[in-house]
Amino acid sequence: MSTLDYRILLIGGICILAIVAALFAPPIAQDINYHLFSDTHTYFGIPHFWNTVSNAPFLLVGAYGLYKLTHNKLNVAVELRAALYIFYTGVFFVGLGSGYYHLNPNNVTLVWDRLPMTIGFMALFCVVIAEYIAVKPAKALLAPLILGGIASVAYWYITETHQQGDLRPYALVQFLPMLVIPLILLTYKHPFNHAKGYWWLITCYGAAKLLEHFDPQIHGLLGFMSGHALKHVIAALGIGLFTQHLITRITIDQTPQATQ
């Protein structure tokens, strides 16, 4: 059995184990305190000002990525363009959806925050698969994964409206790619001189989750801005650094995985 087969077995095994664990785990209800953010100040007539306006960087990096992609400024294989268009469109709509949610945090507005995030996660996952493993499975998985991401949000909302909220599918969509992507980066070769952009994206994602977790503590420390608002900024920074990586990286192998 080849090394490639072992890697596929490892990654596939982790995905299957995670799915099975989620199926047999008890439903994960939405925390009743989820919408209670530490910073509730209104400035210039905008409720939850910093949590709302801190989504603007998503609009900027999403639009920037779409502009660079449209003008062929990203060093990516043509087969990846559809997934990247979806990714950057998702990022842009995260800015709109999350901003809308933070104006009036509740389960209904949260749907419009989570939908574009799941689309972005799934599209990014397919980009990594295409660049590091092979393009054919990535192209085949793109539509099913995006539809699965959308379905995970719909399932959570429907169960929530019946007082039986279940976040298990949504948790899989958000966290499983961020577990598997580093493993792919570490075990597969890529045709470029470095993969710093992916690592910056993962690092900023991890930092953003920490900022989210310590939202009130950071608000107490800074006094004017909370951890949740900084989460938005750091997450958008990671996407911006990833985009710069796609612009500046150099191809060193003329037969990349994406052509297979």
TrEMBL record:
- Protein keywords: Hydrolase, Membrane, Metal-binding, Transmembrane, Transmembrane helix, Zinc
Q: Which Pfam families match?
A: Ceramidase
Membrane spanning segments where? 7-29, 49-70, 82-103, 115-134, 141-158, 170-188
* Primary subcellular site in the record, as a coarse category: membrane
InterPro entries in UniProt = ACER
What is its subcellular localisation?
Answer: Membrane
The organism's superkingdom is given as: Bacteria
Q: Which GO terms describe its cellular component?
A: membrane
The record gives the membrane topology as:
Multi-pass membrane protein
Q: Which cofactors must be present for this protein to function?
A: Zn(2+)
Which regions form coiled coils? Answer: none
Q: Name one GO molecular function term.
A: metal ion binding
One GO biological process this protein is involved in is: ceramide metabolic process
Could you say which residues bind Zn(2+) here? Answer: H102, H228, H232
Q: What is this protein called?
A: Ceramidase domain-containing protein
